[in-house]
Amino acid sequence: MTRPRCFALLCAAVCALVSNYAYAQDFKKQVIYQIVTDRFYDGNTANDTCTRGAGLYDSTKTNWNLYWGGDLAGIQANLTYLHGMGITAIWISPPVENIDVNIPDGSGNPTAPYHGYSADDYMKIDNFFGDCSETWTAFDNLITAAHNLGIKIIVDFPANDTNQQDAGEYGSLYNNGTFMAACNNDPNGYFHHNPEIANFEDRYQLQYYTLEDLCDLNQENSTIDGYLKTSLQTFQQNGTDAFRMDAVKHTTWGWEYSEANSIYNNAPSFVFGEWYESTSDTLFADSVKFANKSGMALYDYPLGLALRDVLGNGNSFSEVDSALSTEDSSFTWPNDLVDWVDNQDQPRLLSMDNDNNRLNEALAFELTARGIPTIYYGDEQYLHNDTGGGGTPYNRPWMNSFSTTTTAYKLISKLAALRTGTNDALAYGTQAQRWMNSDVYIYERQFYGDVVLVAINKNTSTSYAITGLYTALPAGSYSDYLGGLLNGLGITVTAGSGGNNPVTNFTLPAYGVAVWVASTTPTAPEVGSIGPTVGQSGMKVTIAGKNLGSSTGSVLFGTTSATISSWSATSVTFTVPNVSNGVYLVQLKNSSGTLANTIQFTVLTAKMIPVTFTVNNANPTNTGDYIYLTGNTVELGDWGTTFSTAVGPMLDPNYPSWFLNVSAPACQNIQFKFIDIQASGSVVWENGSNHTYTVPCSGTGSVTVSWQY
Question: What is the pLDDT of residue 23?
Fold first, then answer.
């Protein structure tokens, strides 16, 4: 296959990646800006009227379902504006080629995939976003210009599906222009052919049924597995820093482990996925297990939905506090979750409550709360259209202003500087609620001696007397870091004990948001991040933190030292050493021999290969029982016998046969068994000897056995 690339730009991008491991692998200090590319800025009018897709561009911007002209060149033209706001990473719409056919809506009006989620060729850049020849030039130019400003590019990648089955191309998939298959012409099994998802609590339907009429890709097919991973690698070769994986809840979960592993093997990167849910959803525990074990972080829907309920629907701040508490006690790396308040799939907050103060409060929260903040394009300009309640497509209006004087723009700039600066509480710190009622939320972020205390009053008219507030801020007087931008004020802290210093009583005004900051000079190295969190021997990994030292020290996996690639006071890049697979508490030691805190990392046996395991004639005896897989490597659960440790639950659309796609270690002779974890928690093992299987060294695999009675 010919891989599209511009050689000179590629070299520059690769060199940038090699020298900036920490920036690619530690996203906790980043501030993301999400752009619906077509709706941002028309930087290249020539691609509005290409032969391909003729008639799908609306220069009047009155048909909300046609292209309006925004493109990659338009993003590049406004990088200075974004850089001035403190943005360090830009999440762009899926840039791959989309179908070029008119899809009439229910009223006969023309529509087009301006959003980018109707892919047909993952090896090309769509002409509406790039150029009429569908080259990679515009993409490469954006990468180079962004990297020159220290801004990273996140590519939205739809690995679950191609385009609509009834949209004229019938889900067609191409490889750099060569037809591969369609939903109605699929001799090699590149797609699943199942009905629409009817039960969103059914694990099998979620992963294998059709989502919104989009032709569902079969990642267990070795050709599709290789095709998608080659596309991801091509984006990395052209300088992409990170990926937002679309619809991970609906893509084969086991395959996605290997997808993330493939990305991390190719180049330093950060990966997060969209999993729509709240903490009360039936499958919330599945999402936690997925994030903790796959190496892929999640877009934080539970916290985002709670925040919108509180600030858009008038709910109590206890809802936000509860979501944070549940997530922080569940996810191993909560600071890797990607926060948001607005996105392309939800009505904007200002369509829920048309009060700019509400959006200011939301932005202040997500820029200071645990997790990586995402600003939806135009929020800094209070952009919204309330037609039909502001839902899709009206939550994707044209970017109509690039003012740098709005309160929101100034707020984002100030708080972005705090996150990316020398105080690491926002990037790496814990979060603790310090004072709360229905309208007021006061919380604290702390990373060793770095402390940030935040107070938000969402009441429109009532100020609150704040009494009995304690903080880890040292004794002293503190001005509002925001300089009164959102009605904040100074406070006085007196000496206490145990990190609980009393704050002198004060009154927090209506619509008041204040941020108070303190930082101390550490005496030992302090580690706050590791990325990726999962990988095999030979993979490049970055530890980040504070006071790591200017001279090279060591990174220890037990007693085994890793090979160091680069060392600075804030980040260390190393190669995972050749140690046994398992979970390690990795420890950094500076050149003086002073130890840092440990941080968890899972060492895999080898690179991950998707393998479909099937066990026939397995008959659990009780409702609520499920079959799981467990085996002799960390990838297979290390013989674990609980929901969290074993692999599964397996799927049984053809009961009593159960199957599951699992990422297993390449080239390894593995041992495994199947177990019945009963609703009571009791475990029933199958009898007989361990099953054995040699995992392929590439592609995908499958193994089928019968339950041993």
Answer: 59
